Amino acid sequence: MARLKTLAEAGRAAGRTVCLLGRAMKKMVTAANEAGVLVGFPPTVAPEMAADVPRKNLMLIVTGSQGERRAASAQLSRGKYLGLQMKEGDMFLFSSKTIPGNERGVLKIVNAYSEMGVDVVDDSTGRYHVSGHANRPDLERVHDIMRPKMLLPMHGEHRHLRAHAMLAEAKGIASEVVTNGMMMDLTGDMPEVAEYIETGRLYLDGNVLVGAMDGVIRDRIRMALNGHVLITIIVDENDEPLGDAWAEIMGLSPKGKSGKALSDLIEEDLAEFLAKVDDRVLKNDDKMDEAVRRIVRQVCMEEIGKKPEVTVVVSRLLAD
């Protein structure tokens, strides 16, 4: 809040009308005012009024310094937002440092503004950023005000959590560094680990929750990137191939560099394979799967430069 107030005061001192953009920004300011934390905040105007203010006299304070897709800064980079639009000659300041992992989202916004002709100033200058995170004296002050019996540090890298826990313990406060999956028992005098539970990301796939590491999403991504080939082979009662193999391709170019149909080329190579395949391979589904998969990927790599996902279906007819 101190940083926000400083920005607004600087804007007013420069003769600019200040407008706050973003629901999170408005909620934060409203809550701070109601709690008495924010005193003497400069007057602001609504977005619909800001549209009538000359550009040289307007300052927008917006949400989305970490590249959040739905925040005001990202929406402005895509065009109009609440009647306001960035134009060539405007300047956009990031009063923040990019958190590791958010680089792609931030860079997308920076490039979008650059294409508009907007001058962007970010943390690369190192001249004006002030951290909004509490430092050691701030944390000590919070401890003195709250006087907790126990403290579980939250937010930050592990080294930050550990340093906070050590700070609390130095003041006689029972503390524990808690990581994902740790269930804590806080009923005693000391925080204790009650149990560990499995954690991780979950995706809602249709109406079913699947784990990020279950392979479902990974397989779908691989099929989307590499395409898919379905091979069907029928083996008769005597363990002999019945006819030729069938190939169905999905998500791949129908023709390769030779100009021939990709499915025909795959079927031709598989026909040669089935004509001379060893009985030990033909009778073993796993060996058949491996051999057919290798042939299909080799043909696709030579023709279209891709190694698709391959599903091999071997249907065996049973003797009466």
TrEMBL record:
GO molecular function: hydrolase activity; metal ion binding
All copies of domain Ribonuclease J C-terminal, residue ranges: 216-316
Pfam families documented for this protein: RMMBL, RNase_J_b_CASP, RNase_J_C
Occurrences of domain Zn-dependent metallo-hydrolase RNA specificity (ranges): 129-173
Stretches assigned to the Ribonuclease J beta-CASP domain: 2-112
Swiss-Prot/TrEMBL keywords: Hydrolase, Metal-binding, Zinc
Entry's EC annotation: 3.1.-.-
Protein name: Putative ribonuclease J
